[in-house]
Amino acid sequence: MPPATTDTTRERIIDAAEECFARFGVAKTTVEDIAAAAKLSRATVYRSVTGGRDELIMAVVLRDLRRFLDRLAERLRGERSVPEAVVEGTMDAIAYVRERPATAAFLVPETAGHMQAAVARAAEHVLAVCCDYVRPHFETAQRRRMLRADIDVEGTVEFLFRIITSLIVMDRDREPAAQRRFLHTYVVPVIAGP
């Protein structure tokens, strides 16, 4: 069997990190745990991921973010209404994160300090990834006068992701219909106008 490529090894390590974060929690997972789950030596993990645990945290977050954004982009292509795209996209994001313990773990108080440090170093990158996915849809909506003309894509994406994060972290146990009403009442007007 040929030796694993660097990309294959890195993916294997990221898979193991995601599994360990879900099993042990982000704060309690060590590089040793990740190496054991990946069935690799610690030295191989450190050679493949030079940024250590913080780089692995970001790699897991970014990979999961891209998975969600692929789904979101597909939804946005099919939506005719900006309010419905905002509401249903937000509902999808909340459900997506809640179904993934490894991703949800990054938003709970136990890991907030560690996650904030990792995300702070890559905040611009995360925002750029999000904007790249939704920019074409928002620009099209602005040209069609379906989106407020005075807002920019980056600010809008940041606002939406802050809303989504707060709705995940501060779960008020609303029924889906009540959550949709909340979004239509308070979030949609900020983006689409009254």
TrEMBL record:
Keyword DNA-binding: yes
Pfam families xref list: TetR_N
DNA-binding region positions on the chain: 30-49
InterPro entries hit by this protein: Homeodomain-like_sf, HTH-type_TetR-like_transc_reg, HTH_TetR
UniProt entry tagged with the keyword NADP: no
UniProt keyword annotations, A-Z: DNA-binding
Ranges where the HTH tetR-type domain occurs: 7-67
Source domain of life: Bacteria
Protein name: TetR/AcrR family transcriptional regulator
